[in-house]
Design goal:
heterodimer; A: mainly beta; five-stranded antiparallel sheet; B: four-stranded antiparallel sheet; 0% helix
Chain lengths: 109, 113
């Protein structure tokens, strides 16, 4: 089955800097790669996703890139703000999603 | 549309007992997936139900089981509870078609004493 690895497990940046989180997956049949943000005590919320027919997708300060050949995808957050502080999860699959272990992002004012 | 709901929100049980958790998906969604979330372990996939059938299964022991009803509501059951079963149990619903977004419920926090 699918196995997703996520790095780093923790990330601390200064406000205004960029943050990058990377994930690798094992199943070449996976075609859907969402990213979720989970704030303390809340449910995971989708922030961006990408499908296998696209190499890059951007939504304001957030972008995701996908390299299907290498089986890795990355989340890029630019101009980070304190409210970006949360745990971020990547996932891979089709209708059965497997999640990475999460990255705790801290943005220092 | 109303979001995904889960009941109960909090639960305290003792070792050896069993527990049943419920998840009501977004109206029109036919797929419900269940996840176990523990600190440092991320979201571990338990199983996915689609149109009342278990379509996908993770690597959890047989003590963890589930079912889905004709209205797409799903229940998850854990028998013979162990201390290590203490976790946040999240369900997520989607249309069930490939590559469709999953929407999470608020979770049920289970504490096993």
């Amino acid at each position: 089955g699918e196995n997703v690895e996520q790095h780093p497990s923790t990330l601390s940046v200064q406000e205004g800097d960029s943050a990058v989180i990377k994930c690798t997956y094992s199943d070449s049949a996976s075609n859907y790669f969402p990213w979720y943000k989970q704030e303390l005590g809340k449910r995971p919320q989708l922030i961006i996703d990408i499908r296998s027919n696209v190499g890059e997708k951007k939504d304001q300060r957030i972008a995701v890139t996908l390299n299907k050949t290498a089986k890795h995808f990355s989340l890029h957050i630019t101009e980070t703000q304190p409210e970006d502080s949360a745990v971020y999860f990547c996932a891979a699959g089709n209708n059965d999603m497997r999640f990475g272990a999460g990255t705790r992002l801290t943005v220092k004012p | 549309k109303a979001g995904v709901t889960q009941t109960p929100r909090y639960l305290i049980k003792t070792r050896g007992q069993q527990v049943t958790l419920s998840c009501s998906p977004i109206s029109g969604h036919r797929s419900v997936s269940w996840y176990q979330q523990t600190p440092g372990q991320g979201l571990q996939f338990l199983f996915e139900y689609f149109s009342e059938t278990q379509r996908n299964k993770g690597n959890f022991p047989g003590r963890f089981s589930g079912r889905q009803f004709s209205n797409s509501r799903s229940e998850m059951n854990v028998s013979t509870l162990e201390l290590g079963d203490s976790a946040l149990y999240l369900c997520a619903s989607s249309t069930g078609r490939n590559q469709e977004t999953q929407y999470f419920g608020p979770g049920t926090r289970l504490l096993v004493l």
